[in-house]
Write a structure and sequence with these properties.
Subunit structure: Homohexamer.
Subcellular location: Cytoplasm
Number of strands: 14
Helix content: 25-40%
Function: Involved in the biosynthesis of the central metabolite phospho-alpha-D-ribosyl-1-pyrophosphate (PRPP) via the transfer of pyrophosphoryl group from ATP to 1-hydroxyl of ribose-5-phosphate (Rib-5-P).
Strand content: 25-35%
Pathway: Metabolic intermediate biosynthesis; 5-phospho-alpha-D-ribose 1-diphosphate biosynthesis; 5-phospho-alpha-D-ribose 1-diphosphate from D-ribose 5-phosphate (route I): step 1/1
Pfam families: Pribosyl_synth (PF14572), Pribosyltran_N (PF13793)
Strand order of the largest sheet: 10-9-8-11-12-13-14
Structural class: alpha/beta
Order of helices and strands: EHEEEHEHEEHEHEEEHEHEEH
CATH topology of the largest domain: Rossmann fold
Length: about 325
């Protein structure tokens, strides 16, 4: 690589940042991230960044507001130190679900965060599986939108979960495009769960569109938060005759009571990625965590070398 670039880890993504740097054959940059007694955050890098392209790996996950504020302060320190480009790598983009006004007087917080990141000095943003793709349009700077689909698909292919004996299931109508893409990778049919949501974080399974009887079902979503949706879907699939049920998602938020729900539900495996670092108390026996380090390291390499990244997500040719 010809350009001078550096990689730093924010507090929420230290392990992933370390793995990305290792894949790229570079050392993580040294930074002091200090939390004062009153809760204020301080950030200072310990080497020169003048003229450098600087990547900060930081998921804006729980505690969401603290993670965002730390990222903004970190970026401001780099801007004032004359970094040539500041590129936040945000594996999980918090507030992505507040992407529109569903009723009067509601904020569009994902747009607000996009504006703040730009003002703080971001020259481009790298993220993965936004809750809604149109959030890319909230930015006036380039957004490299990664997809975990190839990572998830290769896991199922490796474990021979492919073909007509498999059915890929979308837990709601809004996720059909994502489920259809996985179905193409796995050469499997598609089913859809028609659900009605009474209020936030509460869902009710209504009907299953498609044949799941006698098949191994793979539920796919972009995130698992309280796990109500995906667990209700698992029970419904079992009732309709699915022999095995797998769940997969990019972002494992796992707010309470998600872990207990997932452990109780009839899942053979729950497969997620490491966009959000999970503490030990959020891990359980049939949870499988796949790393996104190769995807992000390859993306960073291509950004540094001005190469296209779109082919990272393409369905391999037969």
């Amino acid at each position: 690589m010809e350009k001078d670039f550096q990689i730093y880890a924010g507090s929420s993504s230290k392990a992933l940042a370390r793995q990305i740097a290792q894949k790229l054959g570079v050392e993580l940059g040294s930074v002091d991230l200090i939390k004062f007694a009153d809760g204020e955050t301080f950030a200072k890098v310990n080497q020169s960044v003048r003229g450098c392209m600087v990547f900060i790996v930081q998921s804006t996950s729980k505690p969401v507001n603290e993670s965002i504020m730390e990222l903004l302060i970190f970026m401001d320190s780099l801007k004032r130190a004359s970094a040539a480009e500041i590129i936040p790598v945000i594996p999980y983009y918090g507030y992505a679900r507040q992407d529109r006004k569903a009723s009067p007087r509601e904020p569009i917080t994902s747009k607000l965060i996009a504006d703040i990141l730009t003002v703080a000095g971001a020259s481009r943003v790298v993220t993965m599986d936004l809750h809604a793709r149109q959030i890319q349009g909230f930015f006036d700077i380039p957004v490299d939108h990664m997809e975990a689909l190839p990572i998830l698909a290769k896991y199922f292919i490796k474990n021979e979960l492919v073909g007509d004996d498999i059915v890929v299931v979308s837990p709601d109508v809004g996720g059909v495009k994502r489920a259809r893409s996985l179905a193409k990778w796995l050469h499997a049919p598609l089913a859809i769960i028609d659900k009605r949501r009474a209020k936030a974080n509460v869902s009710e399974v209504m009907n299953i569109i498609g044949d799941v009887a006698g098949k191994k079902a793979i539920l796919i979503d972009d995130m698992i938060d309280t796990a109500g949706t995906i667990c209700n879907a698992a029970y419904a699939l079992k009732e309709k005759g699915a022999t095995e049920v797998f769940a997969c998602a990019t972002h494992a938020i796992l707010s309470d009571p998600a872990v207990e729900r997932l452990k109780a539900a009839p899942f053979n495996k729950v497969i997620v990625t490491d966009t959000i670092e999970l503490p030990d108390n959020k891990r359980f026996e049939n949870l499988e965590i796949l790393s996104t380090d190769t995807m992000f390291s390859e993306t960073i390499k291509r950004i540094v070398n001005d190469q296209a990244i779109s082919d990272l997500f393409e369905l391999p040719h037969e």
